[in-house]
Amino acid sequence: MTMLLEYLTEGPRILYTSNKQRFFPKKYHGSAQEICQQVVKECWNGKFFQVSTGNFAQFWTRDFGWCVSSLLELDYEKEVHATLKYALNRFSRAGKITTTITPQGKPYDFPNLAADSLPWLIHAIRKSGFAYYPYKDFLNQQIQKYAHKIITPNTGLVNSDMTFSSMKDFAKRKSACYDNCMVAMLTQDLQGMQLENPFAKYDYSTLLQRHFWQGEYFYDDLTHKNYIAGDANIFPFITAIIKDPKLLEKSLQAISGAGLDDPFPLKYTASRRHVHFIWQEIAMWNYEGDTIWTHMGPLYIKLLQQTDKAKAEELKKRYARLIEHHANYLEVFTPHGKPFSSPFYVCDRGMLWAANYLTL
Question: What range defines the domain where residue 121 resides?
């Protein structure tokens, strides 16, 4: 009942805000660097980092986790710690760690339990050196709950019989490669922390290669369909679970060969044909199909800097031109590079993800 109430209030609020931006888009002045600096600064609302200044002016666990390393590099340690305190206070009060917290401070999952909420929260805690001891019992409870609900005990992989919320939260995937990277990252982060680690018995580097590596790229999920997925081929390396430079080079070549970085990075897939979506996607048709997502773009460019510095620099310049043209850091674009919109939804602006551009 509580979840339904959040859907009924949050959905209309987000759709209203997005359509307001259709007619009154916010713009910043300056270079790409200066625009992104202003965006990140405005995402700090005095209490916590919002994921955006527009549609999603609230805390999102995974998005904060994606940006935390860059935020620390940009000297926002105090704000990162305040954000973690804000989130942990509300999560512990609710007795659960969720994908998001409403602007009113209520935690909830969209569209359901996520495989990456706990991993990104733990990652942010470890990376920032946040003093998590007052929340130790709560975090241990959530770790055990995660192990029980999300992991298949005899394999260590994410349960393929359930659909979890994830980075691509409108898609129905069976034990996505990205989700398994999250468990691997969680295991890695828990090492050295004074928290329980029921995943330590699994070798996730081996598991990822055994179950997802095709020979030229990582499969999207355990169905092993023959298509390239952007997130599946950057997160084994972003999380540093896979460290083989030959695999990195092959994955990046596969991404480029599939056109996922054209006209700029990064698309989830070149087509939506192989992917099944939840019913809510109808209101935001093709939102997570072959669209271009700017949360993954800088992460992809950072990996590319290790294998092809010239191309990485060219893609960084494309991002600079894009940011300066729109005078903002936009959320998602059509396959041809236009701001995404549907009859009900217009892409968000002022994304916290701009922090990752600033640290390229």
Answer: 2-358
| 351/322 Cα distance (integer angstroms) | 14
195-201 CB contacts, 8 Å cutoff, 24+ apart: 195/122, 195/132, 195/136, 195/139, 195/140, 195/143, 196/140, 196/143, 196/144, 197/143, 198/143, 198/144, 198/147, 199/147, 199/151, 199/156, 201/156
C-alpha distance from residue 232 to each of 97, 170, 237, 326, 333 (Å): 24, 16, 10, 29, 20
Q: Where are the alpha helices (DSSP H) in the chain?
A: 2-23, 32-43, 61-73, 77-94, 117-128, 136-150, 177-190, 204-212, 230-238, 245-257, 297-304, 309-326, 354-358
Cα three-residue angle 169-173-176, rounded to 5 degrees: 90
What is the gyration radius of the CA atoms in the chain, in angstroms? Answer: 19
Q: Which residues contact 327 (CB under 8 A, 6 or more apart)?
A: 27, 28, 29, 35
Cβ(188)–Cβ(179) under 8 Å?
no
* Higher per-residue confidence, 274 vs 100: 100
- Write the CATH number for 346: 1.50.10.10
Q: What tens digit of pLDDT does each residue of 205-262 get?
A: 999 999 999 999 999 999 999 999 999 999 999 999 999 999 999 999 999 999 999 9
Domains in the chain, number: 1
Q: Give the count of alpha carbons within 13 A of 133, CB side only.
A: 1
**329, 350 Cβ separation under 8 angstroms:** yes
Whether the bond between 198 and the residue before it is cis, its omega within 30 degrees of 0, is: no
Residues in the chain: 360
